Amino acid sequence: PSKTALVTGATDGIGLTTAKELAKKGYRVIVHGRDSARIKTACEEVKAVSQYFPADATIPALADLSSLEGCKHLVSIVQDTCPTQLDLVINNAGVFSDGYGRKVVGEHDLEETFAVNVLAPFVVTSLLLPLLTVKDGTRIIVVSSISQSYQIEDWDDLQFERRHYSAHRSYSESKLLDAMLCFEFADRLTAAGFDTSRVTCNTLDPGTVNTKMLLAGWGACGIPVKKALDQTWLATSDEVERVTGQYFVGRHNRKAASSAYDAGVRSKLWGILSDLAPDAAAIWKQL
Which family, according to the similarity comment (predicted)? Predict the structure, then answer.
């Protein structure tokens, strides 16, 4: 295969749809999930529509992105299987973490929504930068949501250690942070001298789609999963070639929450993430 893509959270929902669509378009797909049986099933589905022999079509990647160790394990799988280049990363994995009204806390006391939805894209993308900046046409996508907050309620309490936990609030704040992270990635790549012909980074609302997450948090108010193709469009379309640092809704360039464009606010996020994952932050200094 000439191109390889990593799709996190690719065992069901929009992630699986995207993995299959990429396979149809000639990508070898790294299928990430946190359950080995579901990864195996997803890989079979992707192989069935791939242009390549089954052995070449997919790479299974088992990793729990709610922990730093899990993020680094995923990176090591990618580095081992794609030692020369990576053409596309879609930070699709996301959780709506409602532990029956209580927050879910994992390793290192990380709140699950923040860990999977925000810290993981920062760590995985940053540590993979050496592979993502090798050749022209590379794309990085951070999945946000139309349900992103307008602003962060308390920068000193992103993980709800003091605030009363709300799964919806935690999720919507995480999706605002994802937009901020994308814009910060795009700006930093440009500042490091990478032309948009080399690498771009964009974010999107993937649509209101009847995924497990939507059904759990909001009910069946969306389109079928198999029709969720906006993510594939942003990853592959010539229409967005060399476009970077933008937010798309329904394949149209839209404005994210205004606070996402505030460089001072974004540097606050960068500082918090850098403290949690200094080795990921260090990669940016080496560019």
Answer: Belongs to the short-chain dehydrogenases/reductases (SDR) family.
For residues 101 and 152, the answer to whether their CB atoms sit within 8 Å is no
pLDDT tens for 221-245 read 666 777 778 999 999 999 999 999 9
Q: Hey, is 33 helix, strand or coil?
A: strand
Show the tokens assigned to 167.
């799964």
| Token reading at 155 | 């920068």
Q: Cα–Cα distance between 124 and 116 in angstroms, integer?
A: 11
pLDDT in tens, 81-117: 999 999 999 999 999 887 666 788 988 889 999 999 9
What pLDDT digit, counting tens, does each position of 121-168 carry?
999 999 999 999 999 999 999 999 988 999 999 999 999 999 999 988
DSSP 161: S
Kindly give, in sequence order, each residue whose CB lies less than 8 Å from that of residue 203, ignoring residues fewer than 6 positions away.
Answer: 141, 142, 143, 144, 178, 179, 182, 183, 246, 247, 248, 256
Look at residues 68, 28, 48, 79 and name the one whose alpha carbon lies nearest to residue 273: 68
Q: How far is the C-alpha of 209 from the C-alpha of 214, rounded, in Å?
A: 7
DSSP letter string over 220-248? S-SB-GGG--HHHHHHH-GGGTT--S-EE
State the greatest distance between any 2 C-alpha atoms of the chain, in Å, as a whole number: 52
- Predicted model pTM: 0.95
Helix (H) or strand (E) holding 89: strand 88-91
Among 98, 129, 132, CA closest to 112: 98
What are the chain's domains? 3-285 (3.40.50.720)
φ, ψ (nearest 5 deg) of residue 170: -60, -45
The angle formed by the CA atoms of residues 247, 250 and 252, to the nearest 5 degrees, is 55
Q: How far apart are the first and last CA of the chain?
A: 28
